[in-house]
Each structure stands twice: as C-alpha cells, then as structure tokens.
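Q: Could you write out the predicted structure for this multi-component system? I'm mainly interested in how the pieces pack against one another.
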Amino acid sequence: MIIDPHIHMVSRTTDDYSALALHGIRVITEPSFWPGYDRKTSESFKDYFEHLTEVEPARASKFGISHYCWIGLNPKEAVDTELAREVMKLLPEYLDRPTVLGSGGIGLNRNSRNEVAVLEWHLELAAQRDDLVLVHTPHLEDKLKGTRLIMDAIRNESRLDPKRVLIDHAEEHTVEAIRNRGFWAGVTLYPLSKCSPARAVDILETFGCENIWLDSAADWGVSDPLAITKAADEMRRRGFDENKIARILYENPAAFLGQSPHFQLPC
Amino acid sequence: MAVEFTSPSATELLDLYFIEYRAKLLDLAAFFDRIDRYDGKEQAQADFRYKSLLEMLDLISCGENRVKNILISLSDPTLVAIADSEATAKASGAWRGAG
C-alpha cells in the first residue's frame, strides 16, 4: 500500500482515482489550496471546505481510497486580511470534522507581511487546539527565505512541537535545515517547479530517510498523480529494497499522519 | 525469472543516464541559441533570468553539491518579509536582485 500525503483531488478526474487505486495508492490527504483564482467571500471558502470534508471522501471511497484533508487559508489568498479574518472564524468547525487531520496548507507564497500575519494566526489556532500542521513553502526563488521565515514563526509559537509539523515542498537547499530544527520534511514531485523523481531519490540518498515523505501535490496544473510510483521505480533502479521503499511511501507518512486522532489506516 | 535490483556503480549510472542528460544539455544550449537568434535578443540577454542561467553553468562545472548551490544562487537572500504591495508579481525562478 502507498500513501500520497499531498494531492488535490478536487481538481482531478475519476480516471485519476482509478489510476491511484490500480497503482496501490490507497490513502491520500488533501491540503486546502488556491483554486487558480482569488475567492471573493468567506462563503466561497465554506463551500470549498464542505467539498473537502463531504464530497471528496465519498468520491474517493468509491475507488477504495481513504481521503483525508487539511483545513486552512492558503497563503496566496492571505493578503486580504479582512477576508482572512472571516475565513479564520470558519476554521474550528471544519477542523473538528472526522476526516480532517489538522491545519494546512498554511504557509507563505511571496513572503509578504500579511502572509506572515495570517500564518501566525493559523499557528496560534493550531497550538490552542493541539492540531497537526502541514506547511506550504513558497515556490522558486522565494523558497529559501520563506522556509526560514516559516521556521522562525513556528519557533515563536512555543506550544507547537516541531515533530507535529511537516514543512512541505522541501528541496536540496532547505531539507537539511528543516529536519535539523526537528520538523518533518515533505519532498514534492512536481514537473518543472519542484523535484523530479530522480532528484527526490538523490535527496533520500544524501540526507537519509528519517522524518521525510514524498508527495505529488497533483492539482489543476501540469502535474502527475502517479509521481510517487515513478519515484518508487527510480528507487528500485538505484538498488533500494522493497522494505526501504515501503518505509518511504507508507510507513513514514503513516507515522506522521498517525499523530492525528482522526487518521486510521485501512484494514 | 525475477529481476533483482542492486545498487549500481557510478559507471553503471553513467551508462544508464548519459544519453538522457546529453539530450538535456543540448536542449539547454539550443534554448540559448534560439533566444540569441530572435529579434529583441539584446533585451533578453540583459534579463536577469538569462544571465542567472548562464552563471549557473559555472556551478555545474565546479565541485560538489551542485543542485544545492544552484538553488541558493537563484534564491532571494534577504530575510525580512516584504510589503504586500511588492508581492504582486509571480515568482520567476531567479532572484531579480541578483541581476
């Protein structure tokens, strides 16, 4: 069995669900994200959170797949702090729902002051509720700085245990610092703007397999919902045995996600 | 008969992937040739992204940790959050301040 701990199924087809099941991906988790345009009202977010917590788990179950999600206001829509305040008020109701694992994908996008402020609101809420946290890091040239700002913001919220925080979209220049500070790291297999399967396996070889997961982050952009199975193929070509592959694609994500009382592995 | 996967040697990796990465290198060279062939090449050649990519080639030819060093060289090195009014453009993949 394989877990893809970051995939945006609201943007994918039933053919993708079928392909996930055929390739042994039986558990998926879906962070809240940006739909490709800025939502104008908090009611739009409410509809989206309903979709994540009601529609998508039912859709996944038809293919024998367990669907979990993460609730939060993504950083790309966090610049309008008035709207962000309204959305923050909605979150506790959804965070309590049975397939919600915690706060995510919160984080930073362009490293702006309002993004940092909204991230701090989320971190305070997660600390109050003792929620797991899944953090999005910025793209491209903003990633290094954003990852540093994010780690500083989490350190400033002393009630949060780094072992209950995963910082996603890590690459060669950020993965070491993330894990040295006690966080889990996610490595995303995404064409062009993130890691290729070959680079992801390089990261595992270079930095080790502790407290790290691989994900596809497949969404409405050019992306690949089967990317982690391609990383498994690359691992085999490099001589990884099946136990080690299972550790990376199943045991590691299960260990992090299992810290949420809402997470259960399928029988 | 089941295929057994064993850890390849460095030379076996070279054998396996050389043609693939030769093709990628030629694509990169062709990208620069194409830009240099088109109208407005002077403006493109002065662009921070064009210059950054050329500078990264030096990092490939020297030493270890090439990917990490390239990513750091393409990154914004500052440490303070920016004003929201400055955060409107999309990320470009290279740091504008470097150009």
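A: Regarding packing and overall arrangement: DSSP finds four helices and no strands in chain B.
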